[in-house]
Amino acid sequence: MDKFVHIKVRFAIMNKAINIVLWALIISVFSLQAQQENENLVKYTADFNFREGVFINFEQVRQNNPIPKSSIVTSIAYDDPDFFDRILENKKIFYFNDLGIKEEIAVKNIWGYSRNGVLYISLNDGYHRITIVGSICHFVANLTTYSPGYTSPYYYPYYGYNNFYNPYGLTPGSYASTEMRQYIMDFKTGRILEYSVESVEVLLMADPELHDEFTGLRKKKKKQLKFLYIRKFNERNPLYFPIN
User: Fold this and answer.
1) Angstrom distance (rounded) from CA 84 to CA 44
2) Angstrom distance (rounded) from CA 215 to CA 29
3) Rg, Å, the chain Cα set
4) pTM of the model
5) Fewest C-beta atoms under 10 Å: which of 2, 24, 27, 30?
6) pLDDT per residue over 157-194, tens digit each?
7) How many other CB atoms sit within 10 Å of the CB of residue 2?
8) Residue 68's closest CA among 90, 43, 44, 93?
9) DSSP structure string for 108-141
10) SS3 67
């Protein structure tokens, strides 16, 4: 009986030792993998430059891997300072992919582009510079709204709608106005939200401690400190990009 107990104890000790070794191996493998991943990433700072080119989708932005200017099929000189403005005036862009196959994409489906290391995002029928880049981005964009009450001097009701000359693309009884609006973007998903207390609260949820701190403020303080908490969030949750 004592011999059986002794064998059982030795087996338990060996089993425990094996488990310790296995866990040590697993931890070292994951640590090595994390170290290798970190070595292939670079932290975003104010000195970081996005690669110049056109971003078809947001995943290309996250990977900092746009279609380079040299791959775009165009007669416009690549060193033309208005290169992007000119190619984006077209309905489509033709380019060669990584396999050397010619492809095309509608300009309306393009996420944006990078010029001189700076990101420009497509929104509201225009391209706008992202001035604050981080896990939460901030930028300003024009928004055109249409309101009732406009009557064109070129509209002749006696002759019907077929004879309506509309130089501004407006319908009778409406007018257009353009205003500047602020937006924020979640760099994890590419989701764009209006710059408001409610939107900031939503994005801060990714950092529970900071979120609780913000939601505990008075309403007036929340409005005043929105930008401060975005900066805090970005400092606590930095962006990393692959080293290309």
Assistant:
1) 24
2) 40
3) 28
4) 0.72
5) 2
6) 433 434 444 544 555 556 667 788 999 999 999 999 99
7) 6
8) 93
9) GG--EEEETTEEEEEETTEEEEEEE-SSEEEEEE
10) strand
